[in-house]
Amino acid sequence: MTLREVEHTVDIDAPAAAIYRLIAEVENWPRIFPPTIFVDRVEADGDSERIRIWATANGEPKNWTSRRTLDAEAQVITFRQEVSTPPVAAMGGTWIIEPLTESTSRVRLLHDYRAIDDDPKGLAWIDEAVDRNSRSELAALKTNVELAHATEDVTFSFEDSVTIAGSAKDAYDFVNEAGLWPERLPHVATVRFEEPAPGLQSLEMDTRAKDGSTHTTKSYRVTFPHHKIAYKQVTLPALMTLHTGYWTFTEAADGTTTASSQHTVVLNTANIARILGEDATVADARAYVHGALSTNSRATLGHAKDHAESQR
């Protein structure tokens, strides 16, 4: 079997410990790495953990499970895919974070992999995906680590919730069945909805704003029946450089359900003046984006509540 070994590196203006922490804490990944849609920590035991990753490879959404070993002292993280997705037969590698000075570091990302049946076309596909994703991940890691302190005021999260006299399953079904949203949600004009694999969805939709204009967004969604749907928007409105979030559905002992919509946003400060006017501030943009997202979330939650309560 042909085992391919490759290495990608990047130098980053940040201390090694800060970089190690960002890579070690997998909940950061959808914010740092463009291909990553969602990461779920399946189990953890000391320095070893299993994580499930949903990400795009060559523009196609894929998911796999990896086992990681973390060495905080050496600032090394090794990973190995447990269940790979064709055409990958096996995939593993190592993150090595090396301090250059007190405030600068070199990050080395090593991969080793094989294609199913040593297929040359499969190997070429993996070569391209690994090279593209590694370059994109390291460039994004550099950008995001270096901007982490500068962007604290333009990164924010918020949540809207509603209490439903109905089951978590019925509320979950309403949000999960996004293909029906144009019939069910007044603010959704059209939807292009696909489920390329069970639990992995592609949702592109045209949404109506208060002024009657429509804008197109595309998201990948990962579903966990009947309690959570996580998503990452990949086609973004002009005022955002990042938008991730999740819907959660928690049923209480009395049969009522709390449904929530959580958003995390990074503002695109370069577009504030063009969209909101020359005098607009970061605070104005934050209020505008929060208001727009919250309005749509609360509308969807309200209709999910009506749907779930009508099923009782």
Q: Which labels suit this protein?
A:
alpha+beta; 7-stranded antiparallel β-sheet; 312 residues
Give your account of this protein's structure.
With 312 residues, the chain is of the alpha+beta class. It is 28% helix and 46% strand. The chain is built from seven helices and 14 strands. It has helices spanning 16-24, 29-32, 120-147, 168-176, 181-184, 272-276, 282-310, and strands at residues 4-12, 36-45, 48-57, 60-71, 76-83, 88-99, 105-115, 155-164, 188-197, 200-208, 214-224, 228-235, 240-251, 257-267. The strands form two sheets. It has a seven-stranded antiparallel β-sheet. It has a seven-stranded antiparallel β-sheet with strand order 8-14-13-12-11-10-9. The longest helix is centred in the C-terminal third of the chain and has 29 residues, at 282-310. It is globular. It starts with a strand and ends with a helix. The mean pLDDT is 93.
